[in-house]
Amino acid sequence: MTTPPVWMDDADVQKAIRNAWPQLVHFLSQHPEWVLGKAKQLLPGVALNEIEGTASSHEKVSLVLDMFLKAADLNAPVFKAFVQSVCMECNLPMDLEIVFMSVSGEGHVTQGQEDLKGASAWFPSTPTRLERRRPCSSPANNNNGKQSKQQRLDSAERYRQLITTSMLQRYGMSRSAEATEPKAQPSPFSQTFVNLVIRQSKGGRMRERGEKAKEAPIAPHDTEEHRNTTLRLSELFESVHMGTTKVVLLLGKPGMGKTRLMHKICQQWAEGDLPQFQLIFFFEFRQLNLIQRKLSLQELLFDFFLRPEDCPDAVFQHILEDTQHTLVIFDGLDKFVENVQLPGPPHTCFPDPLNPLSVSDLFASLCLGKFLPGSTVLVTTRPKIVPGALLKTDTLLAEIWGFDREKVEEYVGYFFRQHSLKEKAIAHLKSNGKLLSMCYIPALCNIVCICLEYLLLHDAGRVQLPQTMTQFYIKMLLTFIGKDQKLRTLSEEVDLSQHEATLVGLSELAFKGLEGNKMLFYAGEVPEDVKDFACLYGLLVSFEVKTSNGHTQVGYTFVHFSLQEFFAALFLLTSKTVDGNFLKQKFFLRSKWMMKREARVPFTENCHVFLSGLSSQGCQKFLSSLAGHCEDQVQERQDIIVQMLKKLGDASLTGPRIAELCHCVHETQDQELARHVGKQLNFRYQFRNFRLMPLDMAVLAFVISSCHPHLVCLDFVGCPMEVDYLDVFGSCENIKSLSFKSRRCGNEFAAVLSKTLPKIKCLTTFQLAGGNISTPGLEDLIRAFPNCHQLEDINLQDNRLKGQEMIKTTEIFSTVAKLKKLDLSYNELLVSTVLAFSRAAAGCPNVTELHIRKDVLTVSFTSQSSKSQRLKKEGIKEEEDVPKPSTLILRLQDCQFNSQWAEELAEVLQSCSHLSEVDLSGNQLGDEGCSKLMKMVPRMCISGPLNLNNNQLSLKSIFCLLNSMSLCPNIVKLKASVHHETAILTLIGKDIAGGAQPRSSSFITALSSTGGHLLGATARKICLTDNNFQNGDLKNLCLALRRCTGVTELDLSKNSLGDPGVLKVAELLPHLNELRSLTLDHNNMSMDGAFCLVQCFADLEHMTSMELCLGSTQKILLTFGERMSPQMLSVTSEHQRELLDSVPNSIHDRCFCLKECMMDLKDVDRLFKRLSTCSGLTKINLSGNSLNDQSVERLLKFLPYLNSVELLSITESKFSSHCVCLLANSVNQCKRICRVEVRSSENAFLHFVKSKESQEICCRLTDCGIGKCEITELCPIFKKCDRLAELDLSGNHLGNEGLRCLLEHLPRTHIPCLIKINHNGVSQDGILHLAHVFATCQNVAEVHVSLCSEATLLITLVREDKPQKILSMKQCCFQAKHLALLSTSLSKCLALSNFTSANNGMMLSSAEDLLRALRKSKGMLRIGIEEPWVKDESIIILLKLAAEVQGNITAITLRRDQALFVVEQEFPRQEEKVESVVSRLHQCELEAKGVCFLPKLIEKCRQLWALNWSQVQFTNAEAETISDTLPHFPSLKKLGLTCCSFLPPGMEHLAEALHQCHTIEDIDFSKSEVGMDISALMNALEGKLHLKSINLGSLNLSNADILNLTSRLSAMPLLKRLSLNKNRLGGESCSHLAQVLKNAVHMEKIDLSHNKIDDAGMKEIAMAIPEMQSVKQIDLSNNSIGSAGGQCFVEALEHSENLEVLKLSGNNIGNETLEKLAPVLPNLHCLKVLHLASCGFDSEGVVCLARVLFHCPQIEEISLSENSIGHKGAMALAEHLPQPSSQLRKIELKVCGLSDCTFRSLALGVSQCPLLEEIILSWNKLGDESALELAKVLSRMAKLKVLDLDNNYITACGARRLTKELAQCRGIQIIRLWHNQIPSDVEQKLRKEEPRLHFAFF
Question: Among 1155, 1181, 1300, 1896, which is least packed by CB within 10 angstroms?
């Protein structure tokens, strides 16, 4: 485009046109039609056809305007006319309009316009609006339009001058004036403006969010880089792009100078420093709060800012037309009481600016560009309160950070410029870090200077400034008053009495303002005295308040909002109108981030801080003087604040609230409170994503330092802070962990921090992550780290360190003494860097692990200094300690290593002499790199895995690895798969490879680790799965395997070998002498291949097991074994050889398993012919093979030829009823069968004995659907078997008829047998028939029947002709006719010895008939009746029932809790004349009492020796009746009244009767209620010379009772058993009891458990123990015996040779007592039971005990539950418990913290106890690994009956394995698995499969 010619004389105008011409082209390109029309009108002779055809509007307009410019010299009026048309008809921007109006020459150019002409050249070119405010005018209206437009321009210019003048008057002074002397008496708060630190922020940071959501940690590679950029004031608007409305959101905390900055902006604009703005409007929200009505935009601008002197409508129209040069300032949005709700999106229609709106809507419309679109809106607010809709992407966010250290000095210099104290003041601030931190806040800096000036002027020698913000405000106030009172020295106290009322009034005004969200007060609202006082000292300032219609009023406001809050806090603590509850409501912590939404937010900012500061004890005198000297009231309110601060501490507090809380605590200056808060925060302070002011850091340092000696953790993430003030943390020596995460952390930050770190004496963890550190900063840190003497963990993640910089960090490997971890992840990692770190790690003995993977780099260390300190502490010289070589783990994963780096990498590995693991996975070594590495492997010192996974290896590398294994004996394991890209070599040290024994010192561990046999050489394993070996590869594989000597485990699974491949591997087996297992899973093997392997199994005698599964998941496992070599036996001890003898020899325990294989008769023949040739075959398992009847029959014919088989299992095969009979008949086919078990017609187990013939046979056919027909077929089979000892037909369908059939055959065989017919549908008729058989058939000895849910029916047959018969019937629901038949049948049974009827519907009358019917010729008969009415009937009725028996009563037992009544009688009966009895008992009295039966009862009780009653509540009459009869029982020896209750009269009768029973030997009153005074009972014991046993447990005996009792006990020479458990026996009682025990030479049992015996009492008892030579049982469980008492007691046991039971559980006797017990136990030759549960000992104590147990084989029961056994203790038990002579039957290890890692050896150890019957392992942490170990040894424990695994971590997998092994364990009765991690459906399935598994709690 052509440049405009210089055709005008005025050079400035020409220059302006030249600059503005491109902008005019850009503007008119939006109206090409109008431009073409003007060209046709003004340039009629010019051809425009070509131009009209141009597509681009911009190009079209540019060509037309060029024509006008070319015609300018020839026809200047044409150009002028065109310019005039443009100005008048188009809506030009104001800057263009001024320039071209001057060119047109229309109107008079004013001085203001002259000024604007020059300014227009400075305006940047900006895009204009697309719309037009008015349509283009027609030529007829041009003259009027010109005049109107010029008038608007003139009015706008005058208004601009008016605003400029006003701004200069209010805020302005020339720059030269700022340096001159101020006015004579400036306000104390007059502040010279010092530039503030302003940081520009990214808009995304301040989005509306919750407090916790915003505090997210910075992840690695955080894009936080330079989130804040420092701005100069002149740059604040430069980044605002003109054209659309832009909002500048300026944030700043209170006191940062936001309002002062706004005034400075107004001043600078008025002085011409902001030329981009033509007009500026300034509003304060504290004044806008006073507007109660709706306003139009014009009213807001003119009535509440500045009204134009003339033509307001023209000025307003001009403002609307030229909005892009308008700046609107809103100061103090946080003080706005209305809620800002922004309207719809900006693209909606524009509202009419003349319509009235609320202030909130006007503000919102301006921000969104609905009013004055294109203008700039500047808003200031606190960071806490921000309308969310303002946080748009095009909103400029900036934050005022206040002062930095340089600006503080600048401000102080200005403040003290009239005094000679300037240098002193600056020096004082520099020397006081806490004071300097306050000065970073401009408002506080002003107050500090006020106080400092006063103190320096009055006493320059000693300046003691306040420590807190509150104290400064108090000092400031006192300073003002002190100046007024003209105090000369600081020692003079300020008299507040004369200002008390004024200060109270000012405080009340401040508080009411806060309550009403007011900062501005009208003159009428401020009392005159308050106004005079506050204005005098500058506390209040006055100004004009704009009202409607241009009126003004005088308003007052506090000079700063914090001052209002200070006085409001004074009001809350001093006013008499405030109570405690109101004060609590007003005290709360502010959140750092609050969005101003619909909900009201608190108006205050620092009121809670001032309240905290005023609660300090140092403020009490000041507050009391303002509160009318009400010190108690002030103290009470101060205490409330302190208590609330204590409650506010919580570990869940986020960083902002922690900072607020620290401010409050610091204000109190209460270190005890700081410690309390630190404890509540768990001494952990975490801050996320908000700025920390220096004052925040100072108060935090105060709280941290006050927590000493507690160690604290400090964590900063994304928190801007002043670098110069980091040294404040140097004063916090108790910081344990210090963490910084921010991109702002650069070299300067590191340099300052490096000076601070050594000062933190307790620092152990340091993190500086996500920063921007280069060489200088890193060097500073590296120099600092060695001086941090406790430093253990260094984290320098994500600091953009380069390779060479990373390598520099290796310098600290050996310089930081206690370093344990170094993290350099997410920095630049090159291959050279990785190698450099590897070399450094190899050369540093302290490095234990180097882990590098992609961007992750961590180094772990071991601290040598800590070891030396520990040795020194224990008195061991370091050189005396046996040196153990430290090991290094190298994990170099995904490090881009290729074959080129392989040799250099190998050299690094070769240079390290202590590698324990090398991981090179995820690299690109390839076959070539692998080959290079393998050549160097023999020279490497690696004791662990070498991982080459994911290195692009092929089969070539697999053979290379095999070759290395054949050449290098150090390689003990190879695992490689081409398909899975895995390749791992495991190496061991050369000493172990040379034949050294396993490192474990435990013989049991070595034994268990090899499956029961010990290896003379180190085991070697090869796992080559998923490699798809072809024929040629397979041949090479076999050759390579033959070269690998000593291979013990070989896994060739998933290689598609097929039958030929399997055959080749089978041919290899004889050459692999050390092979222990071979796995060939998933190799597509057929039945022919299986028979090939079976032949190998028959040929190779050292093959111990073969497991073949040919189903959908093929599984083939072969295991091998060998006998222990003589050399191994020579190195074992005698004890270890005994253990080896007890371990079954693996060579003879050969197992064969075939699963999921479809076999016909030919296959069965083929299989068993080969198996019959296998020597030593003990177990055969055929599972899921679908055998039919013919196959089973054929199989059974081979049984006699399987000479060594002990178990044949046929599982998961559906058997027919005929097949069940065939299996049952197997006992007649093979004499070695001892047990046949068929479950659910699916699983069959045949057990064999080793001898030629079994002595007893057990046949269990459960849940097989056997009915009458099947039992008919089975009975002849049972008849043939004369060795049948148990027959179990439970869960079948026999019914009554089947039972009859069975009873017709079996009793005739005269075979002793137990028959179980549970759950067979037998009814009452069947039971009655059984009762008849029981009564008539002599060899039926016992019958137990129950028809409840248990449905039990047990029959015991014996060979004896006249056995003692027992009949038990439970819940049979008999009717009267059934009971009558039962009585008739039983009356014929004269051999009956015991009959029990429980809940059979037997009423009292039926019971009487039964007792009369039952009799026998000679012997004892026990009759027990358990029915509900037994609980309810009186004692008299029950005694009357007892009188109905036919024999001599020997014992009567009554248990109310069980509703059980038992009478024992003896036949033949000895009779006595009734008359003599009646005469003795006075018949008349008996009739009167209703006990006429007593003579009859007494007659039958002449032989009564035992009376046992329980849970009986005796009435006085019943007690009297019993008392009357007791003396008439001459044979009574035992009286048991347990859990009974007596009234006092009844107890007296009983005691009197007991006194007359001289022959009684056993008395049991335990758990009975005998009244408050039991002296009568004690007196009844006097003279009982024959008494042998006394049980007075749970009677709550007092010391007096014990004293009374001991006086009676001393006269009982025959006493053998004494039970005083669960009483209140203490030390005093023990002293009396000990005297008795010393003389009790016959004492055998003493029970003092559950008392309060302490060490003193125990020592008394211990003194009596040596005298009790006959004692057999001592129970002292659950007392308060400690270590001292325990030691005395066990020492006293040394000569108790007859002791059999010792129970000390529940006493905290500790390891020391066990150490004393250890030498005593071997002397207790009779000891069988030892209970030490919950005794407070640990693994060391268990080790001590276990060593002694080896010498105590006679012990049968041990309880060590609820002790911390630990791994060491478990290993000791495993090693010392097992021995062939051990009598151990029960071991209890409940709640011992046992886990899988500790249990393996223990399981093997307990399995070597030959008589073990019960193992309790409940409430531990045993998982599937433990279950598998138990399953392995279950079959070895022949005597085991109960295994308790309740409440462990066993899953379905472990439970299934136990179920599988349980089939081989005949003797186990129950395995408990309640509350494990087994699904309920699996529990049900396993329970059905194996009934001996219990999953319920009961």
Answer: 1896
